[in-house]
Design a protein that fits this description.
By secondary structure, this protein is α/β, with parallel strands linked by helices. It is built from 9 helices and 9 strands.
């Protein structure tokens, strides 16, 4: 009896050879779009479980350079992908699949009376920016430099979603985020940045050379680039290349 009981338990604990867990390192600004893509992809590929590692692109880059077990990478900056490629960690070619711009974000009701970029230099306002080490922070500073605005941030956040949360909760009067992030936040309004001061960021995606699941990773990248993936990205406000 003991042998008969143990054997089925051993089989139940054995790994499923037909199941793949795919780790995708993804820029925080892609959170909502990639969660929708994750669900749709898994519905179409029932043997693959996509696990999203969401965070600042610079932090994700450091994890990959430290040889974290990542199967595919989608940062918010081509330059970051190039660093990973130069380290020999990209398999094949990285492809740009989406583009984004920046926007001024304010809490609902705009209590600070923000109307444009110049207001980010008002000393009485609580201003938040992404840290300069992440793409949204670097692009924000390009915007401010072109507009000639000397903002003095009260906080610098590690990724755009952390900044957006503080604006949403009314802890800050304003900040600069990706235009797509304002679309999905509750209690946050957007103030457009004039085109002559705005910047566009490209989002590349690639398979990592150390992946243990190259076929599954290729299938996911193909899905992101497909008409189905582009439809999801368009619905979330991303520009399509």
């Amino acid at each position: 009896m003991a042998i008969l009981l143990i054997a089925p338990c051993a089989r139940a604990g054995a790994p499923d050879p037909d199941h793949v867990e795919l780790l995708v390192a993804t820029a925080a600004s892609l959170t909502d779009a990639f969660r929708d893509i994750e669900k749709a992809f898994e519905d179409a590929h029932p043997g693959i479980d996509v696990v999203l590692n969401l965070g600042g692109s610079s932090l994700l880059r450091e994890q990959i350079l430290a040889r974290a077990p990542v199967d595919a990478f989608a940062p918010a900056d081509v330059a970051i992908m190039e660093e990973v490629r130069a380290a020999g960690l990209v398999s094949g070619t990285a492809r740009v699949f989406a583009r984004n711009t920046m926007a001024i974000a304010v809490p609902a009701g705009n209590p600070g009376g923000v109307t444009g970029l110049d207001d980010l230099a008002r000393p009485e306002l609580l201003v938040g920016l992404c840290a300069e080490t992440v793409p949204c922070g670097r692009f924000t500073r390009q915007v401010l430099l072109m507009a000639g605005v000397a903002a003095q941030p009260d906080t610098e956040e590690p990724n755009v979603r952390a900044l957006l949360t503080k604006i949403e909760q009314g802890e800050l009067d304003t900040g600069i985020v990706y235009a797509t992030d304002v679309r999905v936040a509750n209690g946050v309004a957007a103030i457009p940045i004039p085109e002559e001061y705005n910047v566009t960021t490209d989002y590349p995606i690639a398979i990592m050379s150390a992946t243990s699941h190259p076929e599954a990773a290729a299938a996911f990248v193909t899905y992101v680039l497909s008409d189905e993936g582009r439809t999801v990205l368009d619905r979330h406000g991303f520009h399509l290349p």
